[in-house]
Amino acid sequence: MADRALRGTHMGSTSLESEEGVVFVERQNVDFTCPSGHTFEITFAIDAEVPDTWECPLCSKVAIRNGVEDFQEEKSTKPQRTHWEQLMDRRTMEQLQILLDERLEVYRSGRRRPGGY
Ligand SMILES: [Zn+2]
Protein backbone atom coordinates (compact mmCIF):
# COMPACT_ATOMS: atom_id res chain seq x y z
CA MET A 1 0.00 0.00 0.00
CA ALA A 2 2.66 2.46 1.06
CA ASP A 3 4.92 1.27 -1.76
CA ARG A 4 2.26 1.95 -4.31
CA ALA A 5 1.55 5.40 -2.91
CA LEU A 6 5.15 6.46 -3.11
CA ARG A 7 5.89 5.06 -6.56
CA GLY A 8 6.34 7.80 -9.08
CA THR A 9 7.04 10.58 -6.61
CA HIS A 10 10.43 12.25 -6.82
CA MET A 11 11.87 11.77 -3.39
CA GLY A 12 14.30 14.49 -2.44
CA SER A 13 13.20 17.10 -4.91
CA THR A 14 10.01 17.86 -3.05
CA SER A 15 9.46 17.04 0.58
CA LEU A 16 6.19 15.39 1.39
CA GLU A 17 6.37 16.96 4.82
CA SER A 18 6.43 20.54 3.62
CA GLU A 19 4.33 22.80 5.79
CA GLU A 20 3.26 24.74 2.78
CA GLY A 21 -0.45 24.61 2.42
CA VAL A 22 -0.95 23.20 5.89
CA VAL A 23 -3.93 24.82 7.54
CA PHE A 24 -3.50 25.19 11.25
CA VAL A 25 -6.58 24.34 13.23
CA GLU A 26 -8.23 27.29 14.86
CA ARG A 27 -7.84 27.19 18.60
CA GLN A 28 -9.74 28.24 21.67
CA ASN A 29 -8.54 28.88 25.19
CA VAL A 30 -10.67 27.41 27.95
CA ASP A 31 -10.34 28.49 31.59
CA PHE A 32 -10.54 25.97 34.43
CA THR A 33 -10.65 26.61 38.17
CA CYS A 34 -9.75 23.93 40.71
CA PRO A 35 -11.17 23.65 44.29
CA SER A 36 -7.96 25.24 45.61
CA GLY A 37 -8.63 28.33 43.55
CA HIS A 38 -6.01 27.77 40.87
CA THR A 39 -7.08 29.08 37.53
CA PHE A 40 -5.40 27.87 34.37
CA GLU A 41 -5.98 27.90 30.68
CA ILE A 42 -6.00 24.92 28.33
CA THR A 43 -5.89 25.31 24.57
CA PHE A 44 -8.21 23.16 22.48
CA ALA A 45 -8.88 22.97 18.79
CA ILE A 46 -11.93 25.04 18.01
CA ASP A 47 -13.94 21.97 17.05
CA ALA A 48 -12.71 19.80 19.94
CA GLU A 49 -15.16 18.55 22.49
CA VAL A 50 -14.13 20.55 25.54
CA PRO A 51 -14.36 18.53 28.76
CA ASP A 52 -16.10 19.97 31.82
CA THR A 53 -13.21 19.00 34.07
CA TRP A 54 -9.43 18.98 33.85
CA GLU A 55 -6.78 17.94 36.30
CA CYS A 56 -5.19 20.96 37.92
CA PRO A 57 -1.49 21.09 36.94
CA LEU A 58 -0.61 22.66 40.31
CA CYS A 59 -2.40 20.46 42.85
CA SER A 60 -3.84 17.62 40.72
CA LYS A 61 -7.34 18.22 41.99
CA VAL A 62 -10.20 18.12 39.54
CA ALA A 63 -10.70 21.59 38.14
CA ILE A 64 -14.01 22.62 36.65
CA ARG A 65 -14.39 24.55 33.43
CA ASN A 66 -15.39 28.13 34.09
CA GLY A 67 -19.02 28.61 33.31
CA VAL A 68 -20.12 25.22 34.58
CA GLU A 69 -20.04 25.98 38.32
CA ASP A 70 -23.07 23.81 38.94
CA PHE A 71 -21.37 20.81 37.37
CA GLN A 72 -20.71 18.89 40.61
CA GLU A 73 -24.13 19.48 42.09
CA GLU A 74 -25.89 18.61 38.89
CA LYS A 75 -23.98 15.36 38.50
CA SER A 76 -24.54 14.24 42.06
CA THR A 77 -28.25 15.00 42.29
CA LYS A 78 -29.29 13.94 38.83
CA PRO A 79 -28.42 10.41 37.82
CA GLN A 80 -28.08 9.71 34.13
CA ARG A 81 -31.55 9.55 32.70
CA THR A 82 -32.63 7.34 29.87
CA HIS A 83 -34.55 8.52 26.84
CA TRP A 84 -37.46 6.49 28.09
CA GLU A 85 -37.53 8.32 31.44
CA GLN A 86 -37.39 11.67 29.68
CA LEU A 87 -40.23 10.60 27.45
CA MET A 88 -42.30 9.54 30.44
CA ASP A 89 -41.82 13.02 31.91
CA ARG A 90 -43.66 14.48 28.98
CA ARG A 91 -46.22 11.83 28.17
CA THR A 92 -48.39 9.43 30.09
CA MET A 93 -48.82 5.84 29.00
CA GLU A 94 -52.34 6.74 27.87
CA GLN A 95 -51.05 9.54 25.66
CA LEU A 96 -48.37 7.28 24.21
CA GLN A 97 -50.95 4.61 23.46
CA ILE A 98 -53.08 7.19 21.63
CA LEU A 99 -50.07 8.44 19.67
CA LEU A 100 -49.10 4.90 18.81
CA ASP A 101 -52.61 4.05 17.67
CA GLU A 102 -52.68 7.19 15.53
CA ARG A 103 -49.36 6.36 13.91
CA LEU A 104 -50.35 2.75 13.28
CA GLU A 105 -53.58 3.94 11.73
CA VAL A 106 -51.67 6.25 9.40
CA TYR A 107 -49.22 3.53 8.39
CA ARG A 108 -51.92 0.92 7.84
CA SER A 109 -54.05 3.22 5.71
CA GLY A 110 -51.07 4.31 3.65
CA ARG A 111 -51.91 7.95 4.28
CA ARG A 112 -48.32 8.84 4.97
CA ARG A 113 -47.62 12.36 3.85
CA PRO A 114 -44.81 12.63 1.31
CA GLY A 115 -41.73 13.90 3.04
CA GLY A 116 -43.39 13.51 6.41
CA TYR A 117 -42.10 11.43 9.24
ZN1 LIG B 1 -5.12 23.47 41.90
UniProtKB/TrEMBL annotation:
Give the keywords, sorted: Metal-binding, Transcription, Transcription regulation, Zinc
Write the signal peptide boundaries: none
Q: How is the cofactor bound?
A: Bind 1 Zn(2+) per subunit.
Name the InterPro entries for this protein: RbpA_sf, RNApol-bd_RbpA
The lineage's top-level taxon is Bacteria
* Any one of the GO BP annotations: positive regulation of DNA-templated transcription
What would you give as a GO molecular function for this chain, any one? bacterial-type RNA polymerase core enzyme binding
Gene3D superfamilies given in the database record? RNA polymerase-binding protein A (2.20.28.270)
A Pfam family the protein falls into:
RbpA
Quaternary state and interactors:
Forms a complex with the RNAP catalytic core and with free principal sigma factors.
What is the protein name for this chain?
RNA polymerase-binding protein RbpA
In the UniProt record, the gene name given for this protein reads: rbpA
